[in-house]
C-alpha cells in the first residue's frame, strides 16, 4: 500500500475531465487529499489542462496510471513525491518591499540551516502596498497549500488587515508582525522588532529540528 503519492496529468481541456479522473482514482480505492488544475498559457502545451493530485490508499499505482492513459483526452500521466516532501512547509511574508526583503533574508538563511539537515522549508514573499491589497493577501493565506506561518512586514497595518489576521489565527496559522504602527501588532501572536529575527523565528516555528514554538511566547514582543 502506498501511503501518499502525487499524480500529474496533461490533458486536452474538455468537459467531464475531472469526473473521469476522480472516478478512476475512486475505483482503485484512492482518496484525493489535494488537487489543483490550471490551463497552460505558454510553451508547446499551451491551452491544455494540467491536473495535479495528491492521493492516498492506492495499492497499485502503475495500474491506475495505465487506466488514466487510456482515457481519450489524456496525453501524459506521471507519478511524483507529494509537494510536502519536495518543498515542505511554507513561510509566507507579506508587506512592504524593503522590510519583506529583510524578513526573507532571515527566513532563507535559517531555512538553509535546517534543510541541510533534511528538512523541507520554503519561503514565499509578496511586496504589497495598501490596506485592501494586503488584507486580501492575508485572507488568502489559509487557502495556500502547506502554509504554516505568516509574517507581516510593514510600518503601518490595521483596519481590514487586522480583521483578516484574526480570521487567519482561527484557522490555526500563527501570525508574526514587525513592531509597527497600527492595530496589527496588538492582534499578532508575536511581535518582533528586527525583521531578520522575525524571519528566523518563523522558520524555527516550522522546523522539526528546532525547539522554538510560537505558542510558548504568544503575546510577547522582542
Key structural traits:
222 residues, alpha/beta, Alpha-Beta Plaits, Rossmann fold, 2 domains, 5-stranded parallel β-sheet, 4-stranded antiparallel β-sheet, 8 helices, 9 strands, 29% strand
Provide an overview of this structure:
The chain has 222 residues and is an alpha/beta fold. It folds into two domains: 2-82, Alpha-Beta Plaits, CATH 3.30.70.260; 87-216, Hypothetical protein af1403, domain 2 (Rossmann fold, 3-Layer(aba) Sandwich). It has eight helices and nine strands. The chain has helices at residues 17-27, 61-69, 83-86, 97-115, 131-140, 160-170, 184-187, 195-206, and strands spanning 2-11, 31-39, 49-58, 74-80, 89-95, 121-127, 147-153, 175-178, 190-192. It has a five-stranded parallel sheet with strand order 6-5-7-8-9, with helices on both faces. Helix 7 links the parallel strand 8 (175-178) and strand 9 (190-192). Helix 4 runs parallel beside helix 8. The chain starts with a strand and ends in a 16-residue tail after the last helix. The relative contact order is 0.13. The model has no long low-confidence stretch (mean pLDDT 94).
CATH superfamily of the largest domain: Hypothetical protein af1403, domain 2
Compute the CA-based radius of gyration. 20 Å
The topology string of helices and strands comes to EHEEHEHEHEHEHEHEH
Structural class given helices, strands, pairing? Answer: alpha/beta
Protein name: DUF5612 domain-containing protein
Organism: Methermicoccus shengliensis
InterPro entries: ACT-like_dom_sf, ACT_dom, CheY-like_superfamily, DUF5612, UCP006363_ACT
Domain ACT: 6-82
